[in-house]
Automatic annotation (TrEMBL):
Listed PROSITE patterns: HEME_HALOPEROXIDASE
Segments forming domain Heme haloperoxidase family profile: 72-300
Keyword Cytoplasm among UniProt keywords: no
Protein name: Cloroperoxidase
Example of a GO MF term: peroxidase activity
Cofactor: heme b
Basic and acidic residues bias (residue ranges): 68-83
Organism, scientific name: Coprinopsis marcescibilis
Stretches with biased composition (Low complexity): 41-51
S-adenosyl-L-methionine among keywords: no
Chain segments carrying region Disordered: 33-87
Length: 384
């Protein structure tokens, strides 16, 4: 039953029809999409970014085949003073190559375009991941999100309890049992961790003949969960983190493998390339993105190796209790409803004005990108 539900989720993410227009949000006097985005993007003044009407999500790219992305127009550059990076090696790499603003602060549209262009991520998957993160930890008024920690560059803070703390904020988009980052309970959960990468290499040698693939992902994902259960009294893998834990394990074998590899070599990540992404935040030299748009392929294989339900350690290590109240990978409708009515409402209990308007718009984008089967849209703040 769990695998059947998981297959439905992945199919929905990978094949849902492309939504290129959102007429319910209107237009700006008939402007073309790019002009409309520029008109609504807002400007930066001495007082910081201004409020902005969120533009419709970028359309899918016209060309979706393999192509060189480590190119002359996107050279890797080392971090400058003040540049922000976070726990996601893919976003870090895109920023270091200029597909995203190199300072690490971007709009949702910037991020969706970048992950499609740099990694050929399937459009609906790109939108779902981006709007989820933005609603949780972005500045909804200025339409800006930090790919790392909190920064004033995203604009003034909304009223608490909203945090606008960026993707690095523990317990929202980022979570426990990362493949190459330690749990927040133990310290810096954002920085690359060499001992965990050594473990990544060890599992790749033991189960993948020196390569990371879906088989390795199934073993390593389960092992990291067990490590956290045994050592982290505050370990959680509920709701959204249940999604991202399995997605990151699959994306590693999908997005970080050169798109010219086919047949038995497809989805086989070598360790030099893995080190380049995870540690150096850099495309391997001459890297080609995947040859077709990629969603969560392989997540079902990784989950099936050692199915783990959502849950949390309760007060102590080795005290893991299954908790499906927030949904998860195998229960997408419960996840969606709880995400909106519980998680988002807790952050924004009484939004007004521009904040309320932009919440409604972003929640609409989120639902249109995900739309769990037989799961009606919910409207915690109304529809307009």
């Amino acid at each position: 039953m769990a695998l059947k539900s998981l297959s439905v989720v992945l199919l929905a993410l990978a094949t849902v029809s492309q939504i290129n227009a959102f007429p319910q949000y209107g237009s700006l006097g008939g402007l073309e999409a790019r002009q409309e985005e520029e008109a609504t993007r807002g400007s930066t003044s001495t007082s910081g970014p201004r409020s902005r009407v969120p533009p419709p999500p970028p359309a899918p790219p016209r060309f979706t085949g393999a192509k060189l992305v480590d190119d002359r127009d996107h050279p890797w550059r080392p971090l400058r003073n003040g540049d922000i990076r976070g726990p996601c090696p893919g976003l870090n790499t895109l920023a270091s190559h200029g597909y995203l603003p190199r300072d690490g602060v971007a709009s949702p549209s910037d991020i969706i375009k970048a992950v499609q262009e740099g990694f050929n991520m399937e459009t609906q998957t790109a939108r779902f991941a981006t709007y989820s993160a933005h609603i949780l930890e972005g500045n909804l008024v200025t339409d800006l999100l930090s790919i790392g920690g909190k920064t004033s560059r995203t604009g003034p803070n909304p009223p608490p309890p909203a945090t606008v703390a960026g993707i690095s904020n523990h317990g929202s988009f980022e979570g426990d049992a990362s493949l190459t980052r330690i749990d927040a309970f133990f310290g810096n959960h954002v920085a690359f961790n060499q001992p965990l990468f050594d473990q990544f290499v060890d599992f790749s040698n033991r189960f993948g003949n020196g390569f990371y693939n879906y088989t390795v992902g199934g073993e390593l994902r389960f092992h990291r969960i067990q490590q956290s259960i045994e050592t982290n009294p505050q370990f959680r893998i509920r709701g959204f983190r249940h999604f991202t834990a399995y997605a990151e394990a699959a994306f590693t074998a999908n997005l970080f493998v050169d798109g010219r590899k086919t047949g038995a070599d497809a989805h086989q990540l070598d360790m030099d390339s893995a080190r380049s992404f995870f540690r150096d935040m850099r495309f391997p030299r001459g890297f080609f993105r995947p040859s077709s748009p990629t969603a969560g392929e392989g997540a079902d294989i990784i989950f099936a190796a050692h199915p783990t339900q959502p849950g949390t350690n309760v007060g102590a290590v080795n005290n893991f209790v299954v908790d499906t109240s927030m949904g998860g990978l195998t229960d997408p409708c419960t996840f969606y409803v709880q995400f909106v009515n519980t998680t988002v409402r807790a952050l924004y209990p009484n939004p007004t004005g521009v904040l309320r308007r932009n919440l409604i718009i972003n929640l609409g984008f989120l639902y249109d990108s995900f739309a769990p089967p037989d799961c009606p849209q919910v409207f915690p703040y109304g529809q307009n």
